[in-house]
């Protein structure tokens, strides 16, 4: 398999797979529906498969690209260089609030999109959740399995820490599936596009998001264990019962509201 595409070799360490199916690209851009005057931010533009059609619709686009060669290529794009604000940085360490305040219209929330490298997709989403207050929506191409996890509800084997935290921060909407042959080189997995719309008001009230994350991590790190065992460092069996929850239940049967109840109890206990 020749992994060179338009003179650029896909780099394994950046998890690069370049989208090159025109029909799929058209469907993704239609799902994003970019409009003039929006603060659009693309993460990992790569060779511009989404960048170019988005630039056809608008006069300004910020792109975040870690690969130095690709960032340089975008700065010298033959048609769209004057529309692009190229941020050469790792999206995992980027302060998206500071990015927004540096743009000409800082009062307009960000619309973030991208074909995310699979090796950083989960940590990147957790990083973006920290900036949910300045983001209008996000559209990401992810491994289909990750999209299933984002959207899963209690009782599903895909349901886990990512499901709970994503649904605390955002409305999760799977948009379309993308086959491996839409990429060069083709990945070994199916992909899918997901739309994430940050809640203006969270669906549950929690005193500490950090404690919610901690309780989720403890519960799902040992998902075969009952919550009596997996959460024993935070709550006793009697305390679980006092909340109206079953101590012999497993993490994957608890709802977001149940996790919120546990997190608030632990918060009050520790304060």
TrEMBL record:
Its main location: cytoplasm. One of its GO terms (molecular function) is 16S rRNA (adenine(1518)-N(6)/adenine(1519)-N(6))-dimethyltransferase activity. Residues 24-200 form the Ribosomal RNA adenine methylase transferase N-terminal domain. Keywords: Cytoplasm, Methyltransferase, RNA-binding, rRNA processing, S-adenosyl-L-methionine, Transferase. S-adenosyl-L-methionine binds at residues 17, 19, 44, 65, 90, 115. SUPFAM superfamilies: S-adenosyl-L-methionine-dependent methyltransferases. The keyword RNA-binding applies. Its EC number is 2.1.1.182. It catalyses: adenosine(1518)/adenosine(1519) in 16S rRNA + 4 S-adenosyl-L-methionine = N(6)-dimethyladenosine(1518)/N(6)-dimethyladenosine(1519) in 16S rRNA + 4 S-adenosyl-L-homocysteine + 4 H(+). It is found in: Cytoplasm. NCBIfam families: ksgA. Specifically dimethylates two adjacent adenosines (A1518 and A1519) in the loop of a conserved hairpin near the 3'-end of 16S rRNA in the 30S particle. May play a critical role in biogenesis of 30S subunits. Belongs to the class I-like SAM-binding methyltransferase superfamily. rRNA adenine N(6)-methyltransferase family. RsmA subfamily. This is Ribosomal RNA small subunit methyltransferase A. The gene is rsmA.
